[in-house]
Amino acid sequence: xxxxxxxxxxxxxxxxxxxxxxxxxxxxxxxxxxxxxxxxxxxxxxxxxxxxxxxxxxxxxxxxxxxxxxxxxxxxxxxxxxxxxxxxxxxxxxxxxxxxxxxxxxxxxxxxxxxxxxxxxxxxxxxxxxxxxxxxxxxxxxxxxxxxxxxxxxxxxxxxxxxxxxxxxxxxxxxxxxxxxxxxxxxxxxxxxxxxxxxxxxxxxxxxxxxxxxxxxxxxxxxxxxxxxxxxxxxxxxxxxxxxxxxxxxxxxxxxxxxxxx
Length: 262
Description:
Belongs to the SMN family. Involved in spliceosome assembly. The structure is a single chain. This protein is of the alpha+beta class. It has three domains: about 10-90 and about 160-185; about 95-155, SH3 type barrels (Roll); about 220-260. It is about 55% helix and about 10% strand. The chain is built from eight helices and seven strands; from the N terminus they run ααααβββββαααββα. It has helices at about 10-35, 40-85, 90, 100-105, 155-185, 190-195, 205-215, 240-260; strands spanning about 110-115, 120-130, 135-140, 145, 150-155, 220, 230-235. Strands 4-3-2-1-5 form a five-stranded antiparallel β-sheet. β3 and β4 (about 145) form a beta hairpin. It is rod-shaped and about 80 Å long.
């Protein structure tokens, strides 16, 4: 059977990340040796130490889960082989009547059954009792088939619960690591490293903000957006052409006044 892809980090990826975090921590500690009073370096050292600790826990959990699955697989592989080769007293005592089959695993019981295509054990649910055994549906896959009673067993509750718990711990640890990394990436390093006099204050004048932010200062001689227009003076409210017309009007008016007095 085949399932969907997983985004879980592999043991190799976790080990690689752990090595990277440790290298970064060494670099930060070297910086702290040169500047022990730098609060930014102190914070970075603390954050990296936490991430390293979480990664180590996640790596240990992943290795433990891998070993548990491997041990279960070996046991599952050995048991059917021995039963098929030499038989067993338990196999000889398998119930054959439908009544006995129903008493052992009633309809609706969660069990583990061997999938005929690959011979592996999978979680399944008893859907019906048949003269030859059980009709099961494999959980999470939807495949259904009739299975011999020898290839049906109770769910190993202890092992399953341990694996589920390990997966939950691993997932929670991974999410915690992601959160720590995201917080570190989102930190405002500019506000912690720039001197106070170089930080932009929202209350500063436009020319000061433009100086610090690199924004180009607007010229007082503003070119119009219309290609046929003429250059105007910024803040005057009128173009240069209108100003010239008004000046000419005042000049003529003054000339007429002088002639009237004479």
